[in-house]
Amino acid sequence: MKSFHKICALQDIPQQGARVVNTSAQAQAIALFRTADDQVFALDDHCPHKGGALSHGLVFGGAVACPLHNFKVDLATGSALAPEQGQVPCHAVEVRDGEVWLAV
C-alpha cells in the first residue's frame, strides 16, 4: 500500500517549472511539476519518445514539452498529446497547507 510523504513546500517548485525527487521506493526519478495556477503533478522524469528529462522541459497549461524534441505529455494522465503516442507513469500527489505530499 502506498503512503503519502511530505516532499517540499509548494514554493520550492517554480511556477510553470519542475523539481526532481528521488525516493528509495522508486528506481526512477520523479519530477514534480507546478502549473501557473499552482496545480502539482508527478510523473517519472523521462520522455517516452527519447528518454529526455521532462523536468527540463517547458510547462504550459496542463502539459510539459520535452526539451529534446518538443514531445508533449499531459501532466494529469502522463499520456502523449496527439499526434504523438506514449505514456509516462504518473504518481499521486497532493498539496496540503502549502506542502507537497507524494504517494510512494
From TrEMBL:
Gene3D superfamilies: Rieske [2Fe-2S] iron-sulphur domain
CDD domains: Rieske_NirD_small_Bacillus
Keywords: 2Fe-2S, Iron, Iron-sulfur, Metal-binding, Nitrate assimilation, Oxidoreductase
Domain Rieske as annotated: residue spans: 5-102
Annotated InterPro entries: Rieske-like_NirD (IPR012748), Rieske_2Fe-2S (IPR017941), Rieske_2Fe-2S_sf (IPR036922)
Lineage top rank: taxon: Bacteria
PROSITE patterns attached to this UniProt entry: RIESKE
Pfam families assigned: Rieske_2
NCBIfam families: nirD_assim_sml
PANTHER family per UniProt: 3-PHENYLPROPIONATE_CINNAMIC ACID DIOXYGENASE FERREDOXIN SUBUNIT, FERREDOXIN-RELATED
Protein name: Assimilatory nitrite reductase small subunit
Native source organism of the sequence: Silvimonas iriomotensis
Gene name of this polypeptide: nirD
